[in-house]
Amino acid sequence: MSRGASADLPDRNRAAIADAIAQTDRADGDRARCQEILQWLSAEERALNARLAAADSETDARRTELEAIEDREAARAEEIANLEASQEVVCVEIRGLQRQLGRLTEFEHAARRAFIDLEARTVDACSSAEDARDRLLRVSYRLTPDHAAELDVE
Questions:
Q1: How far apart are CA 49 and CA 51, in angstroms?
Q2: Is residue 3 a part of any domain in this protein?
Q3: Residue 46: inside a domain
Q4: Is residue 20 one of the residues assigned to a domain?
Q5: What's 41's DSSP letter?
Q6: pLDDT single digits (tens) 13-63
Q7: What's the pTM value of the predicted model, to 2 decimals?
């Protein structure tokens, strides 16, 4: 429209057009501010997504570390259970060996008593043999040489 034609329009139309232009300008300004806000929000979203990805990565690393710790704990628990079972077997073997040692100790005491008794009987037998020899010698001195020759005693 030309300027002359706009002069023919009533003031009210001109005011409405001016108001519409002002609203359009404000809308354009609002749109520009909205675009800036959207760009800022978009950058914030990317930053938050990056932080979230980093947190997820850290969580995965911690989860992996935790699983490794749990695996080691399970292995230790199994090792402890095996050691406890082994210890029980060893304890049973020790009790058996203690019983055997007790029986051997009893046998040793019995053997010592038997040895002491045998030793005493040996001493008694030697004494008896010496006594018998002495009596035989006394008797042999009383024999005649012919009797001594028969008995092979000198």
A1: 5
A2: no
A3: yes
A4: yes
A5: H
A6: 888 888 888 888 888 888 899 899 999 999 999 999 999 999 999 999 999
A7: 0.44
54's tokens: 């980093």
The tokens describing 92, both together, are: 């049973």
Task: Quote the number of domains for the chain.
Answer: 1
DSSP letter (8 states) at residue 154? -
DSSP 3-state of 153 = coil
1 lies in some domain: no
Name the residue type at position 150. Answer: E
DSSP string, 49-114: HHHHHHHHHHHHHHHHHHHHHHHHHHHHHHHHHHHHHHHHHHHHHHHHHHHHHHHHHHHHHHHHHH
pLDDT in tens, 75-106: 999 999 999 999 999 999 999 999 999 999 99
Instruction: Say if CB 140 and CB 151 are below 8 A apart.
Output: yes
